[in-house]
Amino acid sequence: MNFWKSFIWSTYQFKRIGAFRLQKVHYVFAYMLYITGIQLIPYILADALGISVRFNQALPYIVSVSLVYLSSIMIYLLVSCAVAAIGLFLGKKQGKSLTYKHTWQIAIYALTLPTLLTAIVEAFVFSSSLLFLFYFTMALIYTLLSVSAIPNRNKNKHP
């Protein structure tokens, strides 16, 4: 599936995010790398302007952007794992037939809108430590809505 379609659908269609759980893991991991790159565009632009004024070398800029990108991927993975664990617990309470892999994939796609909103807020409005609380809460709500859009498992296998 196209990354742009996945990106657009994961901002507003909970049922589609629930269906994304059936994709292969490498598509989901590539999507995570893609969304992390989009999140860092404001930082890269601001850093490029600051470094071009201070240095005439590209090496510090490349190293700085690489380190920020890798640390952002680590944070994204940690948040997605935490959201997936909570989503798995609440999904099992709702009677959903889910594994941790499914909820992790749902969490990756459910983090799209909170990631975009926090990147926009940090770039244009303000940056605060409470922004992470907003990010995590919104990601949990989005994941739970996506999990609840998945049909329940059948209790009776026989008609």
UniProtKB/TrEMBL annotation:
- Keyword line: Membrane, Transmembrane, Transmembrane helix
Keyword Repeat in annotation: no
Give the transmembrane ranges. 25-46, 58-91, 103-126, 132-150
Membrane: is it a keyword of this entry?
Answer: yes
List, alphabetically, the InterPro entries matched.
Answer: DUF1189 (IPR009574)
What's the protein here called?
Answer: DUF1189 domain-containing protein
What species does this protein belong to? Pontibacillus halophilus JSM 076056 = DSM 19796
